[in-house]
């Protein structure tokens, strides 16, 4: 799982970055579905991973909207 994103990694990102990652993940999901429909898909597990990635991004965005989790910045060592 080289490209997988964890919720903790997503929580430290800005809203604009989350929106961009969501857009990229949705485009990848579209391409994977297209490959699946035409019989060219080699990695069926990637479909599931991308769907979960999209769900994680939506979850983090919703948490922020409800005020459940605030934006956490990485602590600086200086």
Short summary:
With about 80 residues, the protein is mainly α. It has helices spanning about 5-10, 15-35, 45-65. It is built from three helices and no strands.
Structure description:
This is Large ribosomal subunit protein uL29. The chain has 78 residues and is mostly helical. Helices cover 65% and strands 0% of the residues. It contains 3 helices and no strands. The chain has helices spanning 7-11, 15-37, 44-66. Helix 2 packs antiparallel against helix 3 (44-66). The protein starts with 6 loop residues before the first helix and ends in a 12-residue tail after the last helix.
Total strand count, please?
A: 0
Inertia-based shape: elongated
Structural class: mainly alpha
Overall mean confidence score, pLDDT: 88
Low-confidence stretches: none
Count of alpha and pi helical runs: 3
Q: Give the N-terminus to C-terminus distance in angstroms.
A: 32 Å
What is the H-and-E element order?
HHH
Helix-residue proportion: 55-70%
Give the radius of gyration: 15 Å
Strand content: under 5%
Largest sheet data: none
């Amino acid at each position: 799982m080289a490209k997988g994103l964890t919720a903790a990694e997503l929580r430290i990102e800005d809203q604009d970055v989350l929106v961009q990652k969501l857009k990229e993940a949705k485009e990848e999901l579209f391409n994977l579905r297209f490959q699946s429909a035409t019989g060219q898909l080699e990695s069926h597990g990637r479909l599931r991973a991308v769907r979960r990635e999209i769900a994680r991004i939506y979850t983090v965005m919703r948490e922020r909207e409800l005020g459940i989790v605030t934006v956490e910045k990485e602590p600086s060592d200086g």
